[in-house]
Amino acid sequence: MLGHHYTRTFLETAVASMNAGCNLELSYGVRNNVFMHIPQALAMGNITLQMLRERVRPLFYTRMRLGEFDPPAMNPYSALDLSAVQSPEHRNLSLEAAVKSFVLLKNARGTLPLRAQDLPGKRLAVVGPFADNPRVLFGDYAPVPEPRYIYTPRRGLEMLPANISFAAGCREPRCQQYSRAEVVGAAGEADVVVVCLGTGTDVETEAKDRRDLSLPGHQLELLQDAVQ
User: Fold this and answer.
1) Where residue 228 falls among pLDDT bands split at 50, 70, 90?
2) Using CA atoms, how far apart are residues 26 and 98, in angstroms rounded to an integer?
3) Which neighbouring-strand residues pair with 75?
4) What domains lie within the chain, and their CATH numbers?
5) Is pTM beyond 0.70 here?
């Protein structure tokens, strides 16, 4: 109705949605949304009571399966706490999912993987606005865990037996203010440089698109300085 102008009114939109099979609305507000007009559509004969029941049934079936109508003592989800969410089994599964989701585009001269036995005495620099900023590591709609469970690249790499140096270069993804000396100083003395770049929700989210796919601000310059 608002974006594509397929319909003109909330009532018309409610009828079209119901006929299309939609049974759940992400509303603009409790008092002013599309599905609040369903009773009017029903009274006018635009939809039938049978259709309304068919649309509602799977919603309540799902709620029943989730135990929303059971006493809390009967609902197994009520007993779940942080110890269950952060159990060794779940943490191992998260690690497996992370490892299997990595996309390696290039591995010149077999640089990766970094092996712990090869790192003692080596100097490793981790640079970039995503190197040690937990806030920017999560995408749009992502749940942000407790800080103690967030491992930034810097925090993770510091677990390796190497001498770690760090330089953000710029403090946020837009990278409008860039400290070249900071990055060159850290990367210039390192045997291995890990550069952490990207966009994050500061730059792009739902309804906030970009005109191109280039790195924002001075991030490309940061990358070039880090690898020279």
Assistant:
1) confident
2) 30
3) none
4) 10-74 (no CATH), 103-226 (3.40.50.1700)
5) yes
